[in-house]
Specification:
- The protein has helices at 106-114, 121-145, 155-158, 176-181; strands spanning 13-23, 29-39, 43-45, 49-51, 58-66, 72-81.
- By secondary structure, it is an alpha+beta fold.
- The chain has two domains: 13-145; 155-185, no CATH class.
- A hairpin with a 5-residue loop joins strand 1 (13-23) and strand 2 (29-39).
- It starts with 12 loop residues before the first strand and ends in a 9-residue tail after the last helix.
Length: 190
Amino acid sequence: MPLSEPAAREPIHTRTVTCRGYRRADGLWDIEGHLTDIKSYVFRNDHRGTIESGDPIHEMWIRVTLDESFTIRDIEAATDKSPYGLCPSITPAYDQLKGLTIGGGFSRKLKERLGGVHGCTHLSELMGPVATTAFQTIFPILARERGMRLEHTGEDKKKGPPPLLNACHAFASDSEIVRRHWPELYTGPD
């Protein structure tokens, strides 16, 4: 169901975030994120002069290279367009994310290393969709190749609960989905 009919309005700002996941020939995975912020009007900028409607005020990229355990092996950040000349100088700071694993606690660790004046708000925000794209890229391929099933049986039980359990509303331990696929982990009413 789409959103309801909006009130009369005019477009002012468009943020576009695009993320793509790739499997590399060397067994690693690349996740690329691209962010643009575009205004619908012409305005003056001290650094760039006149910025025309449709010309991005922000245009930034991140490429994260991961292994199968979602550990960041390499990272590259680039700022093609920004409102200030010094903005691109922070991109090397994103090297501090090498060695971190995308998973529980990742957002906190990102903020600890690159929060506030130690990073770029836009590049750090882009890491959220990049992390989600990493999961959507890597997990289904590895699961299919390893013959993993959604059911939690046999050897899987020795490894602990499935990673999806309680990760969102649909996979809450008391949801119908958990009752159907992991009845031994279901905590809702009978």
